[in-house]
Amino acid sequence: KFLDLSTVSMMNILLLASVAVALLASTDAAESEGEVMLYADEHGNLVLADEHNGATTLGFVLDNLQQVAALEREQSQCVETVQQQLETIRALQQQLQQLREVTCSSSGPFYYVSSIPPMTIQSGNSRDFEAFEINGTHYLALAIRSGNNASAYSEADSIIFRWNTTAFVPFQYIPTFGAWDWVFFTTTLADGSSAHILAVANYFNDNARATPPKSVLYRWNGVAFVFFQDIPSLYGECLAHTTIGGLSFLAVANRGAGYSDVYRWNISVQQFDYYQSVPSEGASDAEFFVIENAGVFLAFSGKGAEVYHWNGSAFAPFQSFVRESDQTWIGTRGLRVFPLAGTYYLALAVDYLVDQFDEVQYKTNSFIYRWNGTMFQEFQAVETQSSFDWEPFTIGGTQYLAVANIQAAGMVFRWNGSIFEEFQLLPDVGIWDLEFFSIGNRLFLALVSKPISYIMEWNGCRFNRPT
Description:
Low-confidence stretches: 1-6, 26-32, 106-123
Number of strands: 33
Distance between the termini: 84 Å
Number of helices: 2
Largest sheet: 5 strands, antiparallel
Strand content: over 45%
Mean pLDDT: 82
């Protein structure tokens, strides 16, 4: 009924009024027949008085209410602070997720891991990388087609690089003639020991046109590679090795002949002897492969592609890939076979297509074939431009397939469970060869390209190199 506002703050008025109303409401009407007054005394205490019970000081209520209000304010501030922190965390999580999505789904950024010294390699003169390991040391052989300021195919020093725990550095220079391909393998000697062999396919020597150079095998002597054996080849573009029945076989793809040759290891004299020739027009690549429950196969690319099957004593014709249609034929390069999802796939790189008007088209399709139990059937066509190589590899159980294009940027495809889909655009135009390899837990993809050969490393999501 009476309240002196002069000694009570507005905040206290609001708080105390609420309490007073609650107290008055709870007073038994039978015991409070007279007037009830609410006022502030000279000390600022809130007093509740009636005729029967007298005056009661409610200052303690004010103190408690102030404490509760302070606690509520502090709690509210804490809740607000926690909410802000949670919002900040959620924003950071979203940024991290967006960054991961960009890193794992976009085509950049890139950075170099190791760069082949440009002062020793003229633009476009390299052709092939071959990664290998001897006694725990990693090497990378680079086939160089011709030297600096030289004609298209001439004598040049191809380079073997050695890994020094941080980068590949030049280790050994080997004279080659229009070198197109390296292959590394191990074979057994007469005394049961192993011989590490590095073989190069020599294509042509402009300085000695009358006699095509032979392809050459070099043997590791514990310190370096030394000459071991040479093998006749007619514009050799590729070498491939396999073991059948404990014996080594070596195939030579002859670009300049209508046939390619197969050599077999003669353990008694410790050299490769000529074994068999098979038709292969314009051969560019050679690939041995094994299909479970079907046996050993040998394939050559060139004008179309030819697949041969080992019948126990020789390689016999098995399947041909010659034409894209009845009116056209294709010039092919790289050929790779790999297992996937319980079957096998054959990737065939198409360099060009000759149409019904005998016009050459470089923008065409390369093909992926799938083994159906008895033969390969076309499975997927991929648009390429003068494609030279395929490189299949797996990372973390996922299958990838990279393609090298001469007249367009290369591409890494990823298996999505049903087809190969585009995954990462390789940044350079003019890729001749691709080589996937690992050193410990580190994964690399080496590219022979124009104007410089380089190496990219897997960063957990993709292969990177600098712009």
